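Researcher: Please translate sequence to structure tokens.
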Amino acid sequence: MDADKIKQFFILHGEKFVVGVVVLAAGWMVYSGLQMPNMLDEVQPEKLTADANTVRNSIDEDHNEAIFQEREPVVAPKFDILAETARKRTPVDASPYKTANLLERKSIDTSIRRKDPEIFAPRALQVDSHIASIAKLSRTGEYPLKDLEGAEALEVVEQEKPRPRSRSRRRGGMDEMMGMDEMMGMEMGMGGGMDMYGEDMGMGMGMGMDMGMGATMSASASGRRFDSANNFGFTAVPKNSMKPVPDYAWFISGTAVIPHKEMAEAFKAAFQDADGYLPSRDQPLYFNYEVQRADVTTKSVDELNENDWVLRYTREQNLKEAHRSWGGYAQEVVPEDYRDLNVTAYIPPILLADYTDFVTHPLIPMVSRREKEMKEREELLKEEEVDVNDLELAGPGASGMAGMGGDMGMDMGMDMGMGMDMGMEMGMSGMGAYGGMAMVEEDPVDYKIMRFFDFASSNDKNTPRPGRKYVYRIRVAVVDPNFPANALQQPKVSTLSGDVYQRVSKLMQQAEEEESRRGLFERWSEWSEPSEAISLPDFNQYFAGPVELPRVKTLQLGDKTVEYTADPPTAKAVNYSYNIQYRTTMPIWMQNVTPGSNFSYEGPAELIDPIDLVVKKLEDAKVTSQTTVVDLGGGKVLPMTGDAELTEPGMMLLFDENGQLRVTGEVEDQENYRIYSFAKERGL
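Model: Translation complete:
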């Protein structure tokens, strides 16, 4: 048979084979069932009942005789409890134990025990984001920006001569304004009118000299430098054999305040009247802090749980980062009264940029209490008027300082005392945490500042990322006054309240097992309220300049006057861009910004070396920006000025990279606009 016939055979008779197999299987199963024994022959209800009763009767029978062996009866011993009690109440003869001099027993008032004071959480947490240059140390001192050529001198822009002022009825007022302008010019030329700070005075003199010598004295191509008066950041200097180089810092900063006065009052209430009160120990000694961050890009703050929070910053991290990476510390701007070395982080060495805003806090004064008191004293002395008729002649033997000696001596003594106090505080800040001396504050300040910095880094798996939204929270730790870091200052357990004793006894046992109190003597506050959502910033900022309006025409429509222009308004602005490749700022002066303009740019640009302040040139700069100008405002002539043609400040409505509308104006941007458009060098 060939293959086709075989195939045809199975197609026609295959189902018959299947039916045959099923019939054979069924027959085998019937046959197997018939060969099984009949259960009715062996298993009957009566037989099963009889077997169960037999087992039950065997269980109920008494089997004690087979289990217990014969034992002798137990006889209780004779015991006279009354005689034994009388014997134990007989006092022991104390004569062998008497000493010549007995110590007088001191009764301890146990009504006031040491409690745990309340540790208040930090408050008013505020965050901000930045991109800036930061100083780091290098053995070679080489960096990409250093190899670029210096920028050429800027051309001085010729200004149109102002039209002569017309006489008007407001001449008196205008003359007064002119006089004020002249006086302001004289003050600038003489250094700002003797500012109380020498640094500001020097800056004022520098500005005056530059203005007096004319704006046409731009530096040469090889020696053109950024005006040091506009350098508001850290001044980088070599350290040992290391040289400073710039690096970029992309980070989120935060500041909060500790309610220090409330904390001090809580400690005072808990310990001042308790036994064993030690002022240097029983006060808030701040030791540590922690900062956590949570991503709220896709969820709200209310939806966060504990697993969403990531630890980002501690006191130890700040110290290590500052020591290993930074090329120094920026100058502190917060008065010492409102800082604490253990919770106020060091300021990174930010180059060029003014860091004051993001390292301070609105609740923290920028003037120390001593300076404030001195200023109030000066104002009080100015208010006191002395009548010459009230003066009296000095008596014989007067020193010549009779009328002033007492006050001056007192003032000098107070100033010296305050100076000594400040010096001691500087030398001993943070020592209380390790058992050293600590100053006891008679009148503590309301708040102490806390700050932190969350830097973006490619080496950090939890680094903040662009486009994501984050919230932060912070808490503070103090040295536990009932279990201090220094075991020699440990309060007696007899002075502790019940709940405090239970807590401290466990810590003492753990410290004994670990042979260290490290990490055990910190008492943490609750977490602060979450901050507002924040993201890493874009690489571009925009500073608005003046707006120029084309000639305005009027059209009368019935009883209404309509103003219109044939051309759109134009504005000047600065695209303050950050160049990651060269790790510095790259300001671009844009002179023809109109509604609909985009801030992208290609062409030559200038870079500011943040180390030596030399201005470098870059021929093929490229800035990509998605920010668009929606509208321009301002530029209209103010009617009160007449022919002077002072115009309204310019304003720009921007649609930024994040899809947000924001307004920037010439007034708030004036300083940055003039600095980074090099207006002074251009003669503007």
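Researcher: Any highlights?
Model: The CA atoms of residues 195 and 668 lie 23 Å apart.
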